[in-house]
Specification:
Elements lengths: L2 E7 L13 E6 L2 E5 L5 H7 L7 E5 L5 H4 L1 H11 L6 E6 L2 H12 L7 E6 L5 E5 L3 E7 L7 E7 L5 E2 L1 H7 L6 H5 L4 E2 L5 E2 L1 H4 E2 L6 E5 L17 E5 L7 H7 L4 H11 L3 E5 L9 H8 L5 E3 L5 E3 L12
Parallel strand pairs: 3-4, 4-5, 5-6, 14-15, 15-16, 16-17
Antiparallel strand pairs: 1-2, 1-18, 2-3, 7-8, 8-9, 9-14, 10-13, 11-12
């Protein structure tokens, strides 16, 4: 049951010799989600062994070229590879007419369907769900309509103590309720507490993606106590004024967001090409939030499965 993020591109605005433009692949169990699609993304997908054919959902934060120009090439390659499965694209409303015009010119005979899911800036909004996970969008603060995403596992059920279930000869039809927290009442009327029948479930994992945005502590209400937060850190504090002018964040501002939201780990990226070495940005962020890491192309970050703490019952 994997929950793993792979960095495909960690540069902003323009690629460098070591950093591609913004793109991330997230694996949740057996699903692969693509988040942003800067130029060169399909090459990065192949390089880092992310299976193209298993990506059915693409999430675009906003319509700046370093986050979306790779989408056109990826759609074309899918057509050349005889893709048949639907491709779902979650993006600001302005993308659909732009992409449709591109398709009329370059891909008039698309072999698969593209299904658009326009994002709306109405707070935290559920935009996707399956049996394992849910995805929510929320508005960010940038020059154009921009969105962040929260990927969240569905809650796990409690795990049965099989030896106890077998010993008590509890019928199969009652097991679902017990996994959901119900006690068991024997034929003689004795109540067996659920904690004697089960062990604590795994904690549902979560990943938050905050793309280009002006520093805003108000964002933390959308993702309190997340396991992993990606927050752009285009500049260091020495360019704080420029960050505000361009509606970006600094490394220390990203760390303050992580601190306020009480997340477990912070991942900073979307670095300006002026930073050949990002250690100064990492040190700046760690001064406020020690569990900070720098995004580098090809790095992966897994969120492990851990069991929830049992609450004491008085």
């Amino acid at each position: 049951m994997q929950f793993k993020l792979t960095i495909l591109g960690s540069s902003s605005a323009v690629p460098t010799s070591h950093r591609n433009l913004t793109a991330h692949a997230l694996r949740v169990h057996e699903r692969f989600f693509l988040i942003d699609c800067g130029e060169g993304t399909q090459m990065q997908l192949r390089k880092h062994k992310i299976p193209l054919g298993r990506i059915h959902h693409i999430f675009i934060t906003h319509l700046h070229g370093d986050h979306v120009f790779g989408l056109y090439g990826l759609i074309s390659s899918y057509n050349l590879l005889f893709r048949k499965e639907d491709l779902h694209i979650y993006a600001p409303t302005e993308l659909e007419p732009i992409l449709e015009q591109h398709l009329r010119i370059f891909e008039p005979r698309l072999r698969y369907r593209i299904i658009y899911h326009p994002l709306v800036p109405d707070g935290k909004t559920l935009i996707y769900e399956d049996k394992h996970a849910q995805v929510f969008s929320f508005p960010l603060f940038h020059k154009v309509p921009t969105f962040g995403f929260l990927f969240q596992e569905r809650p796990y059920e409690r795990n049965l103590r099989k030896e106890v279930i077998k010993k008590m000869q509890i019928p199969i039809r009652h097991l679902k309720g017990i996994k959901q927290g119900e006690d068991w009442i024997t034929s003689g009327g004795l109540r067996i507490p659920n904690k004697q029948l089960t062990i604590a479930p795994y904690k549902a994992r979560s990943f938050v993606y905050c793309s280009d945005t002006l520093y805003s502590p108000s964002l933390t209400r959308f993702f309190p106590r997340a396991d992993l937060l990606f927050h752009e850190a285009t500049f260091g504090e020495e360019f704080k004024k420029h960050a505000r002018l361009t509606m970006h964040s600094t490394a220390s501002q990203a760390a303050r967001i992580a601190q306020k939201a009480q997340v477990n780990r912070l991942l900073i990226g979307h670095f300006s090409a002026r930073y050949k070495d990002t250690s100064s940005l990492l040190n700046e962020a760690r001064a406020f939030f020690p569990e900070t890491y720098c995004a580098d192309d090809g790095l992966s970050f897994s969120i492990p499965l851990i069991r929830e703490q049992e609450k004491e019952v008085s």
